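Email to the structure team, subject: Ankyrin model.

Hi all, the expression group asked for a predicted structure before they design truncation constructs. Nothing fancy, just the tokens so they can compare against earlier work. One-line instruction: predict Ankyrin, return tokens.
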Amino acid sequence: MGSIGFLDSDAPFCRRFDFESSGVTNINWSATPLQTASNAGNVPLVELLLDLGADVNSTACPGGKTALFAAVEAGHAEVVKILLARGAQVDAFGNHESEPHVTCLMAAVRRGDAMLVQMLLENGADPDLSKILSAVIDSGNNNALISLAQAGIDINQRIKVDFLKLKNQLRFTPASDGILGITAELICITPLGYAVAHGGWIKGAVPDIAMTMLDLDADLNASLWEESFEYQSLLHFVISQWIGRRNSFYQGIKHVKGLVTPKLIEILLSRGALPGASGHGLDSSNQATPLQLIASDEPKEGWPETFEVAETLLKAGADVNSTQCLSVLQPLEAAAFMGNFDLVKLLLSHGADVKSSALQEAIRGFFKYDAQPEVSMAVVNLLLEKKADINAPPSYDGMGMTALQWAVHGNFLPLVRRLINLGAEISAASPDATYGGTAIQIAAKDGHLEIAYLLIHHGADVNRASHNFPYEEEETSAIDLAAREGRLDMVQLLINEGADTHLPGSKRYRRAERLAEREGHVAVADLLKHYFEDATWD
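Reply from the structure team: attached below.
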């Protein structure tokens, strides 16, 4: 063991250091002379102590820092070079009490010192991105990232990150874990995705380091996540956040839309992002294409317009009739449902299929909790003007109902009359178990007298029965449904129009009367008894 007079070159002596640059302050630790000299950047003293036999890798002190770590943390490149040449362990941990596994390379990255990063990598530092990427992102230092890339590190390889940390950065609620199907403590994500997710919407701007990654040819179209719950490209992820599809997963973020601008989407497309790439996952919104997501957005005052983004996507080659995800509405259908008149017009001008289920979706849009009837009607009129298919089959989200059935359900008498005059199929039946049946059955159930009368006089079959209504094991006809709901006037109208309360078979029984009595509709039951008092129970 070397010494200088009475001074043992490896003996610790107490000294107080302030490490604000690393985020750890006022740590008391015992340092050897070599560690102290390295931290101070005293090159002659470092060389002298090493020549006298000081242990270059000493961690005997409670703080556990090696001289190399102290030099890196303080940013003394010349001392780092000397220590490495004398055998310093390049991957030694700093052993902070709060962060016990911070390596020299991570400390250099946090400083944003590209020269030190390069020096450590050249001397064999472990380039595991899973360990150092969080430090790169936290520092936001482009030079350190460039140094990693120049050293041959693949910036497209997925890295494992702490999901709890990422969840806190994205401000997911605890409930989102189950919704997203996340069970692992670590998830895999691309560095580019991590950079955007970490800094984009929380800080109100796209981090510069993400743009640097694009300059370094980061793969824009690689799926961000490796976990089974969600495979998304960066464009898909950015748009899904921009339109606020996941506002329910956020705490304290009221205006997510204002944080990621259409300009970023334009930049990603100009850099080669595929405009039609969909995601995959448990959430159907992850499976949609970017244009489907945009069309599903609800235009509101104070939010960036979806029109600009949709136009950008279309100019970049997005499929206006995308059906890549069958569980999500086509763009035109979604825009019609949301009552987005301008977007509907834009999609039609780019060749959107007017023969889709857009018309029924526009009418269904009247039933949204915050629907604007005049806007929805403007969309309906536009689609009819463009010769929309009145009898198009129900969409995935359309609850199995045609345009006429939705108009009947909404008691839109002028629209019902218009659809009938344009050739709507009055007898079409819906397989849906909530509304179900034919238009006359829906009118009877909902109590829309004028519409029922109109349908009957255009040939509706008042005695057609179906299994399509909930809570009933047997087939139900229009009068059965009217009786069950206590629609006295409707029951009288249907009787006047020839409704038969008896189901076919060997036994004739008062089905409608039984339903009325079951639900406590005494007046309806008495009316039916008056007309059918000769019928027997089954």
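Strands lie at 3-4, 7-8, 13-19, 24-31, 159-162, 186-189, 230-231, 280-281. The two ends are 107 Å apart (CA to CA). Ping us if the truncation boundaries need rechecking.
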